[in-house]
Amino acid sequence: MGGKTEYQRAWWFVVPVVVLVAFNALVPLMTVVNYSVQETFGNNQFFWHGVGWFQDVLNSERFHAALGRQLLFTTIILLIEIPLGVAIALTMPKKGPWVPVCLVLMALPLLIPWNVVGAMWNIFALPDIGLLGYTLNSLGFDYNYTQQPVSAWITVILMDVWHWTSLVVLLAYAGLIAIPDAYYQAAKIDGASPWAVFRHIQLPKMQRVLTIAILLRFMDSFMIHTEVSVLTGGGPGNATTFLSIDLVKIALGQFDLGPAAAMSLIYFVITLLVSWVFYTLMTRHDQN
User: Fold this and answer.
1) Residue 152 and residue 236 in contact, taking contact as beta carbons nearer than 8 Å
2) At a CB cut-off of 8 Å and minimum separation 6, what does 75 contact?
């Protein structure tokens, strides 16, 4: 009873942090909600506009195009980074002196700031002087991410894969090393193939960490902005103008606060709903 009481009292130390975080999140959110339902003509004068901005955004072809590009990019990223991260984690040593070396190498890309990543790949992929661009053009490929939409997409995808696959690797590796050796010994006695070991032992035991990896990579890739903004600026044309980049253009470039606020709330709801669907589908097996 005494231990339970002490455990309950411990929550009082967390309450100030929860209140502070909630306050810092609630104030900006309410400001956005306020802008999304009002119209202004300057001089700090606002007029009630209702759901008009939401209707304009949802009926806008520009919004649909940006959302389509965002969903396509996120889908490609998940299809590449999750299997690739698991494959790399499977090849990493579980014991020995090379373990810390591999972990440090995997963590290095994650330590680089997002704007630096975009600047690095901006130089790396330049068609004339960049190592990637110059090499591809020397091999006979017509590559120029500043003018060709396909090249821009390939460059953005490669940049994100290089930057964030390490996160999936580290999570998958944590799930692998948590598997007791008794499972592998039993599989060896039964003569199980490597694929059978992966299918019936490793993959089920990694389910929880892979759920976290998929959710994190979905949210990060769906809200990507800084790297793409520095690398391509949303170009060429609107080829890489994802939802986040289009939102910034409307809010800061055009200074249309009402549509931008409505769009940001729609953006938030889409991210929340899709994340909830992902989580529900991937945890349904555990509930059963």
Assistant:
1) yes
2) none
DSSP string, 207-261: HHHHHHHHHHHHHHHHT--HHHHHHTTT-STTTT--HHHHHHIIIIIS--HHHHH
CA distances from 29 to 23, 39, 42, 58 (A): 10, 17, 22, 20
> CA 93, CA 213: separation in Å to the nearest integer?
21
Longest dimension (CA), the chain: 79
Per-residue pLDDT for 75 more than 70?
yes
Note the pLDDT tens digit of each residue in 40-66.
766 667 788 888 889 999 999 999 999
| Alpha-carbon distances of 157 from 2, 27, 150, rounded to whole Å | 55, 35, 11
Instruction: Name, in order, each residue with C-beta under 8 angstroms of 177's C-beta and a sequence gap of 6 or more.
Output: 94
Helix (H) or strand (E) holding 258: helix 257-287
List the structure tokens of 281: 């589908």
Tokens linked to 110: 């994650």
Alpha carbon 19 to its chain's center:
27
Report the relative pairing of strands 46-48 and 38-40 from DSSP bridges. Answer: antiparallel
SS3 38: strand
Per-residue pLDDT of 97-135, as tens digits, reads 899 999 999 999 999 999 999 999 999 999 888 999 999
The pLDDT of residue 251: 85
Which letter does DSSP use for residue 27 in this model?
H
